[in-house]
Design a protein that fits this description.
Strand content: under 5%
Radius of gyration: 17 Å
Largest sheet: none
Number of helices: 2
Number of strands: 0
Structural class: mainly alpha
Amino acid sequence: MNKMARSNRENAVLPVQLAHERAWQPRGGLNEDAFKRLGLLERLEAENAQLRDSVVDLMLQIQALRDGAR
């Protein structure tokens, strides 16, 4: 279930990321600074997604430990 939930989350996030990236593109096209900002934004979003996955995994582990202690 954990892998399936993560996959569903990733599939739901992709359209939002694409819309966000398009919204940040200047109307005249991307210059070098815009490419740098976009690259930084993409790395931060990827790191954020990994951290969220880690939090979910930890919460599931905590819940399993609590259930096992009962």
